[in-house]
Each structure stands twice: as structure tokens, then as C-alpha cells.
Amino acid sequence: MIEAHQLTKRYGEKTAVDRLDFTVRPGTVTGFLGPNGAGKSTTMRMIVGLDAPTGGTVRVNGRRYAEHAAPLQEVGALLEAKSIHPGRSAFNHLMAQAHTHGIPRRRVEEVIELTGLTSVARKRAGAFSLGMGQRLGIASALLGDPATVMLDEPVNGLDPEGVLWIRNLLTGLAAEGRTVFVSSHLMSEMALVADHLIVVGRGRLLADTTVQELVRQAGGDVVKVVTADPAALRAALAGPDVEITGRAGTDELLVTGRTAREIGLAAAEQGIALFELTPRTVSLEEAFMELTRDAVEYHGTTTATAATGTGTGTGTDTDTPRSAA
Amino acid sequence: MSTVAPSPTAAPADPGPARPAYKVTAARVLRAEWAKLWSLRSTWITLGLSLLFLVAFGLIAAFQFKSRIDGGRPMDRDFAEASALRLSLFGTNFSQLSLGVLGVLVAAGEYSTGMIRSTLAAVPRRLPVLWSKAAVYGVIALLLGTAGVFATFLADSRIVAGTRAAMTLSDTGVVRGLLGAGLYLALVGVIGVALGALLRSVAGGIAVLVAALTLVPGLTQLLPSSWQDHIGPYLPSHAGEAMFALQHDGTLLSPTGGLVVFLGWTVLALAGAAVRLLRTDA
To answer: Who contacts B109 (Cβ-Cβ below 8 Å, separation ≥6)?
Structure first.
């Protein structure tokens, strides 16, 4: 359990984290999403006390991180930057961490095996590949058998097999009742593991929601209809869960809450001519882009089209409806 | 995937009662810092060099003295006042630099590599890390320095036996001087740790350390002589020298005075490091 209350971090003029309020609950994987520079890493550093908040508080399992008798047993953290001495072997690095808490050597060997580092455990960690370094960081995070696991961009630099391994690890940890908090700037990756999402941009909380809810808010499943008689079709489709929008003066409607099939049947019953009937699914990537549009720190000129093109693949249309989030 | 379960000891869905009770204690942080120090190759190399400097330069100084005495060649001022104690401590000038540098590395090396994030995540109260680093490294430097100067003295006293520099351990001030030298080297190491933690930069820490021990004494000679007399004895290097010198003329404090002043410098450096460690984000 991680509870942030009005958490704020300022560096001089710049506000990296701006009055964040959120709770990360046990038993599920919570994704921490935001564009680069949104304040994700700073927030995570404040959770484990590496950075002191300028304002507000953040508690882990009911207390400030530093107040726990065995911090590594409360939160196991993998931070974005390498946190090892390159001259020390993986085993010695983990053993030194273990000594501070009285964690037995057996547990060190356990996490080495779990992360697949057995064959390189006695080699200098400085010679590790990016993926191996990431595995060592995860071994270190799991060392204290922590109730809360917090990983900053864990899939960075991993090959597909490693990515799959992380995904299974995260869902497994959550299934054991642990709190799992994972940051990423890749919505597509989060969509596969996270149940809950905390989205930030420019240090502000943009959304604290579930994956499904985020998609729904960003436009959800919309059907575009072009018809000869928009007014009659509106009347035919009206219902409690249905939302219909359309620009005045055109014969185009955007319908949520009805499938293309239902719309087609309703139009046929009423004898309304349809010229176009196109279902559109907003991908999570698009929902995320929509949400963080104004909060992206470093804009590239072709960001929107490029990201949509390489999205999750569930997005079938680049002409995303701009419904209110 | 079979590798999902993080540990067989963690009971699924209930990580509560079955979990072992770990706890951070001062002794465990000491143990961790001890393990960290010895698990780096640079520690062994630098400590080896420090001991080599200490013993080798002490022996070379004694051989030089002996050969000049035997050859009847003129002595420069340093050798003219030589004693077996003084000759055997010749290596401290070099050994102090390598021991101090390793001290800087022990602390600042964690910042340059990023290791500090792991260290402080494990010990978020932070100060125990500084005390443990200083204590572990201080004791190691003390043992190495003391053993080194005693061994060098015993060898040197044989080399210069029968000359006017001859001395034995039973002579007044010899044991005190040797212990003082060992303690001086240990405190230089601790100051190195403190400077490393204070400046968080290996290059910066080494620069300040070398400047304080070797450059500042030279620079004070630019000051008016009345100032020199007042400031000079309190400088780290001169206060340290007072801890192991045999003769204490007007330019040096008493051995106890030197120890107190040098301890003062050490405490000052450690206090600065502690404040920075607590106040600044890692």
C-alpha cells in the first residue's frame, strides 16, 4: 500500500511533482504512466526517501519509508538508473544489501536463481548487459520479500523473452497479495499487465482509473454513421446508455453504446438510408495520448502520427474522435 | 512460467505471519559496510600500495642514512636531525595520500557509481551508513598503519644500529610516536571518507584532501610570519605531525594538543558530511 497526499517536489522554479494524491492498493498491478519528464521517477524516489518532498507526504504500508524497522521488507524498489557498484559481483552486491537487514544467504541465492543470474552471479556487475543489469535490480528489489514492489521502467532494455518474464513476474506478485507499482511511458506495455492506472503529466495527476475506464473516457467504442436523415436516426437509437454526437449541418453522427450491427438493424427497421457505418476502437495508446496531449514535456513534430502507427494494433483509425475525457 | 513465485517462503495471498522478521541494526550496517569494502578489488590494491609506501619508503630512508654515514658524505638538514623513529615514519607522507584517497573512494565512489541509491534504500535513516563507513575504514587504516610503522621501525632500528640515529622501542617517545603515526593515518582515512561523503565527488574529495595535507602548509608561508606562528600549528598536517614527532619546538603543538586538534578537524569533516547526507537528496 502506497499513499501519496499532496506530494510535491520543486527544483527551484521547476515543479517536478505537483500535489499528487493517489493510493496504490495491494493485490493488483498498478501502472504509473506518463510521458518522459512527467515526474514518475521523482515520485518513486520520494516513496523510498531518496528525495525529500518539498510538500505533502507519502506513506508506505502506513508509515514513512524510513520509519520502518526493515525497509527492504516493506518496499523492494528498482529505480531507473543503475544502483550498483560496477566493480562488485552480483552476489556480493546482494549479500551487502542482505547484511543490513540480517537476510540470510539462502535468500540471496534464491533471488539470484529466480532472476536467472546464477551463471553470472560471481562476475563483475559492471560487465553486465542492460538486461542482466535490470535482472540484478529486480533481484535486489525482491531480496527482502517485500509487501510492496515498485519498479521504474522495468522492461527498458529487455529482450522479448525478458519482457514476458517481467509481465508474468508482476502478475504473479500481485496474485500473492502484494502491492505492485510499475512505471512506464509505454501505454501498450501497461495495458498488458496493469489493472489500475495512475496517469501523470508535468507532475500533475491526470487520471486515477482502470484500464477499461480510461478507454471509455477517451471515447470508447464509437461507431461513425453517415445517414440521409440524422434526426430520425437519433430518435431511433435513443436509449439510456447511448450517446450520440454530430456536427450541425452535416449528416455524420458518432454513436457510443450501440454496435454497428444494432445501428444498421435499427436504421433498416425505420427505413433510414445509411451511407457509412464504421466501428472505431480507441486504443489505449490513443487514450493515453489524448489524456497527456497538453502535458507532454518534449514535443516532437510527428509524435501523434508516429505513436498511433506503432500502437497496440487495436486502434484501427487514426481519426480519433475528440470526445471529452 | 515456473519462475513467477518470488520465493517458496512467501505464502500466496498472505505474506503476513509466515514472513521472517528482518531488522536493520547498527551492527548489521557495520557488517554490510565491511562486506562492501572487501568485495572491491580497488580496496585490496590501494591498501597494498599504502602498506608498500609506508614500509618501502621507511626502509629506503634508513638505507640512505646508513650509506651516507658510512660513506662520510654530507647530510642535508633532514638527515642531520634523523632518528630511527623519524626515518621509519618517512613513508607516512605517501601512505597518508593513498589511505586518504581510498577513504574518499569508499564514500564518493557510491555516488559516482549510483550504488548510493541501493545503500540508502536499505538504510533510509542514512547516518548509520556514514558512521559505519568511517568506523570500518578507520579501524582498517589504524591496524594497517600501526602494523606498518612498527614493522618499519623495527627494521630501521637494525639498519641504523650503532649510528647516532639508533633507537629502540624502549626509548622515550618511540612507542607514543609510532602509535600516534598509526592513529594519524587512520584519521586521515576517516577524513577521506568524510570528504567523499561531503563533496560526493571522487575528484573533488581527492583534490581537497591533497590540498589540505600538502598544499595548504606551503601556502601559509606566504602569510606574515606572526600569522604563520598562530595558524601554522593548527593546520591538519602540522597538528598531525605533532602526534608522532619526537621533538616539539615552537612550531608544533604537544602530542596531545596535536591529537586534539586533528580529532577536531576529523569531527568537523564528519559533521559536514552528516549534514549534507541528511539534507541533500541522494
So the answer is: A85, B115, B196, B202
Same fold, A2-209 and A221-281: no
Q: Which residues lie closer than 8 Å to B111 by C-beta, 6 or more apart?
A: B200, B201
- Cα nearest neighbour of B21 on chain A: A70
Bridge partners of A221? A281
Given 2.60.40.1080, 3.30.70.260, 3.40.50.300, 3.90.1150.10, which CATH number is that of A2-209? 3.40.50.300
pTM given for the model: 0.83
User: Which of B22, B40, B120 is facing A102, going by the closest CB pair?
Assistant: B22
Phi, psi torsion values for B177, nearest 5 degrees? -65, -40
Sign of the dihedral through C-alpha A11, A12, A14, A18: positive
Strand partners, A7: A20
The candidate with the shortest Cα–Cα distance to B178, out of B262, B261, B88, B100, is B88
Beta strand A179-184 pairing with A148-152: parallel
Contact A169 B122 (CB under 8 A): no
Instruction: Measure CB to CB from residue B1 to each of A86, A95, A168 and give the nearest one.
Output: A168
Give contacts of B25 with chain A, Cβ < 8 Å. Answer: 102
CB-nearest to A71 from B29, B42, B124 is B124
Please list every residue in chain B whose beta carbon sits closer than 8 Å to the beta carbon of residue A168.
Answer: 1, 3-4
Tell me if B23 and A110 make a contact (CB, 8 A cut-off): no
Contacts of A87 in chain B (CB under 8 A): 40-42
Nearest CA-CA distance, residue A96 and chain B, Å: 5
Residue at grid coordinates 584532501: B209
User: Regarding the domain delimited by A221-281, which CATH topology (the fold level of the hierarchy) does it fall under?
Assistant: Alpha-Beta Plaits (3.30.70)
Query: What nine digits make up the cell of B174?
Result: 618511540
Q: What is this model's ipTM?
A: 0.86
- In tens, the pLDDT along B184-241 reads 999 999 999 999 999 999 999 999 999 998 888 778 778 777 777 777 888 888 888 8
* Residue in this structure with the C-alpha cell 605517501, named with its chain if needed: B94
